[in-house]
Amino acid sequence: MLLASTSRLFLLGLVLAAAAADPGPANNTAGYDTSRVGPSNAICVRETYQLDITSNNIQFHDVDSNANQTYLEALFQTFSTLMTNLTLMYEQPYRQPVHNSYNISGTLCVPKDVIENTFDVQLLLHGITWDSSYWDFVPDNSTEQYSYVYAAAEAGYVTFRYDQLGAGLSEHPEDAYNVVQAFTDLAIATKIAQMLRSGDIGGVKFDKVIGVGHSYGSITISEFMKKRLYYTPGPTGRF
Ligand SMILES: *[C@@H]1O[C@H](CO)[C@@H](O)[C@H](O)[C@H]1NC(C)=O
Ligand SMILES: *[C@@H]1O[C@H](CO)[C@@H](O)[C@H](O)[C@H]1NC(C)=O
Ligand SMILES: *[C@@H]1O[C@H](CO)[C@@H](O)[C@H](O)[C@H]1NC(C)=O
Ligand SMILES: *[C@@H]1O[C@H](CO)[C@@H](O)[C@H](O)[C@H]1NC(C)=O
Ligand SMILES: *[C@@H]1O[C@H](CO)[C@@H](O)[C@H](O)[C@H]1NC(C)=O
């Protein structure tokens, strides 16, 4: 699914914020097998990157900062049926700059058999309510045939996947409304893409960053592709 509409991205920010504000377990790494870093055909390194991020975020008003399940469901119903009203009801007409340092956990996987494409990297962005572990999905710790990272490595591609803010092994900020937003996620994705280009991840200056997203991850990728936010001409002038 690829929804590149900016207005939807705005609205998604609110729903994301509310979901992150759900006072469930703060420790949301359930199902994340941290002993697994990558598939057998790649050399993988997982690291936490401290990113300095400034983003122009939405300000919300009249939202319950202690959201319960009933409140979240009502909010989601409004989101799916009356998007415009949701904006009118909860968003201030202006945005505010938010600056923070975030700990983002990411995993770089380089194919063991380097055949080709070595100077391109696939940037894998997961969807809402997930974390980056499903890109290397191995049911029952057995067959690797469902692992995207494995398939990419077989095809000679380097991959970099990371947990979005508030997910998996990355930081889970307490201020879910003002901090965990689509604009923050976009700024993080942009920064990561720049780091891949400049050699700050894995020590390799990748020539081309190929965005691969699922659901919300693909919306984020479409947005920064559209704005060319991370464009810096490489040795070959490609993205
Ligand atoms: C998160 O889970 C880990 C492992 O179970 C535990 O050591 C840690 O204290 C938990 N952190 C929080 C904030 O609950
Ligand atoms: C859920 O929160 C709303 C306010 O947002 C409140 O009116 C309602 O009573 C709460 N429900 C429960 C079951 O706590
Ligand atoms: C949605 O907004 C329109 C226009 O402002 C208004 O007429 C309508 O009553 C609103 N619907 C709800 C459910 O709030
Ligand atoms: C981020 O990582 C640094 C370095 O490991 C650590 O000192 C800091 O406490 C982390 N911050 C959060 C909010 O987890
Ligand atoms: C999966 O397999 C790896 C290596 O074969 C092992 O190190 C790891 O502990 C296993 N994880 C689980 C959850 O069984």
From TrEMBL:
Claim: GTP-binding is one of the keywords in the record: no
UniProtKB keywords: Signal
InterPro entries: AB_hydrolase_1, AB_hydrolase_fold
Domain AB hydrolase-1 residue range list: 123-232
Signal peptide segment: 1-21
Keyword Magnesium: no
Name the record gives this protein: Alpha/beta-hydrolase
The species this protein was found in: Phanerochaete sordida
